[in-house]
Amino acid sequence: MARAILPRMPRGLLALVAVAACGAPAASAPAKAPPALSPAAIQPPPEDVVVPDAAAPVDWATARHGTDDEALALWAQLGLTGANFEQRVADIPEAPATLREAMAKALLRSGNFACPVETTSTCGPAEIDRERLDYQLREIPDDATLDDPCMRRVIALWAIDQLDDDDLSGELAADMIALAGLPWPEVELPRAAMYRITDPAVRLNMVAAAKQAGNDVVADELVAGLDLDALRQLALDHHVDGAVTAIGAGPLTLDVFERAVVDPALRSQTRVDAIRELASWAFELEPSDPDRARVIAALDAARAGVDCVAAGAADVALVDVGAMRPLAAPRPRDAEVIRWLCMNAAAPLADPTAPWRALAGPAGVVIRRITHDPYALDVLRQEHPDVPDADGDGLPDLPREELDPDGDGDPARWTEVERVTAGDFGDVVAGYLDELTRAVTSCDGTTCTVAGAHVTWRLLFGKPRAGKPVLVELVRTETHPDC
Known about the structure:
Nuclear Transport Factor 2, Chain: A; 23 helices; disordered N terminus; alpha+beta; flat
């Protein structure tokens, strides 16, 4: 027999129980009071101890769920909050089987799963900071209700698991497509939906919806398993990068690649990959093959396109397949020089500094480095706490050469100037080569931005010599925004 576990009683109370059980006289010494509990004994439970939630206010035995309205009414009765929803949803009975199924379908059909995004960013111009943003979905507050989309998206993951593949691909197809169309950084919910879809047409529409929502991460992932016809449609009609890279160049896909190498809706890297795929296939074709002529024409079009990175890749490809000579030096027009530098950035040069060295004139090149850092003012104050501020400008009254070394009137900005000989220019460029290579792929006139950094480079050209451009000054500006 199992041994019963009884609550421990105070010693005096146990004595009374024993006496009464033996039939002893009632008169006896009074029992001692139980000892007082120590402060440690009345502390609240540790944070990692889960306190059971009160029962959900639903009588499941009589719950009606035959329609979406009835199922949604049950969701409302659950009284879900950010603090209790996980337990209460898990406690929804598994029987009858139609209960969870009905509640799952009703929830998925009612939508509202786009959780707001929180961003943490370095501050500064949006065009510079775009790649430095840290995106994350908003956390679910404890007082959230069922109207909170961040809580609803988590419950939607549960709902998908309650349904079979036929229902998801059939009567809930439109709702699965809507889930796939949630904007980035939502990836978990579209993935969960896509992995359960068996109908190719629904899968294709889900990929298209993700691309339309700008969620390239999801769109590129979800092309996996689609057949060639679906990939062609996604590449040609919906500009899905992942569809282009998932297929190889050949007679059945040549039209896809002819479009892809100049498609502005694709990412630059996708265009470059398509160019290289075409060039690789061209080596397998006979000179008289009509498809080879189409490949050469497509590469020519890419070389003339607006994307200078893709143009550089196409130039390399055309040289490799024997269709043209290497890239010639540009005429002395600023825009042509910038494009030429960008195209060379994509070329596998033995000496990547060679194009830059070719621009240096006999007098060399001036390198001007400008740095703007508002925090430098705070550093000055911290380093000289005892120096007075008699003029009230918020800065310690230091000698001018210490407060503003370059004398430009702005202590938060300083400039360094160096003249580099033509012979040494290549070595200087080598120290900045990665930055310059990234900069020349994103230029507005002769001012080029380094993506992902608060740095710009400006190229100043002088009078041409013998019909060739001459670079006289490189200006590097680095900005530390005042956040």
